[in-house]
Amino acid sequence: MKKRLFIAGHTGMVGASLLREVVRTGSYLPVLATRRELDLRDASAVKLFMEEQRPDVVIFAAAKVGGILSNSTFPADFLYDNLVLATNIVQASFQTGVQRLLFLGSSCIYPKFAPQPIPEDALLSGALEETNEAYAIAKIAGLKLCAAYRKQHGVLFHSAMPTNLYGEGDNYHPDHSHVIPGLLHRFHAAKEGGLPEVAIWGSGTPCREFLYVDDLASACLHLLTLKNPPDWINVGYGSDVSILDLAKAVARTVGYEGRIVLDSDKPDGTPKKLLDSSLLRATGWSPKVPLEEGLGRAYEAYKTARASGQLRAV
Ligand code: GFB
Fold first, then answer.
1. Domain 4-308 has what CATH class?
2. Residue 157 and residue 148: Cα distance in Å, rounded?
3. Which is the closest atom of ligand 1 to the Cα of 135?
4. Domain boundaries, the chain
């Protein structure tokens, strides 16, 4: 009989991709709850839901996420919401006998000046990047919570740390989004409006590694097949790109031919965060979607969502 998999956060970009992958592979029986049906910040509601639904496995893809500006403007929300989600879901999973839980974190858990590419053991070896410290601390607490339950209670609760993600179902809010949806939206609007230039935030020099969300979904299902996974493991693409080069690639994807200028009032964030994903690669997983292809797929999904009035911009 198929195991019951609760995808916490299945309406977000990551959760929706996980659901598509579970349906495509037929690997689990999905257990789902929309935000309306279940407020994951309500501990007793989460416990009741888990008691009723009895999932065997949980993937923790629910989070309050946002780009650099959103993280630095709303640190209380990022810290509080993500801490509460972590304690509620991990504790309810333990109390209701969940066999296995995969918690999703972020590459921002590592120190601002970590060695590059960043190995897993760089965790807690230095100060964090200020723009996303609140989010990072909540994610570090979440991964440590899983490791502590595993150590104390012998449950298989473990974590994956994805690099910067993008793809279908992203959030396109002009200020709150991450860089790829932000730029896709701005370049598209500039092309439609015949604007001569588009501004990108910061100096254009920071480098970021980007993973198409469907690659993360396949990595998560792969991780769930490992008998003795590490407490946390990096999930990256393997190479990075400067923000200016990314902006040029987005302009090519959209077909925008105007100038690219810099908005230096906006923050740069960490100079570089390329993950060392060799541990995961050695277990037999590798990403499939190169950046240019991923940008094309994300842009198609953006246009489709816009045309049907379903674009997320929160
Ligand atoms: O994607 P982003 O917001 O995330 O920004 P972070 C990445 C880089 O792109 C920064 C630049 O150097 C931005 O200044 N950038 C250029 C832009 N134009 C834009 C734009 O229009 N929008 C945005 N958003 N950026 C996040 C963390 O940091 O990384 C989160 O805040 C999370 O906590 C995520 O961990 C993975 O990589 O800087």
1. alpha beta
2. 9
3. 33
4. 4-308
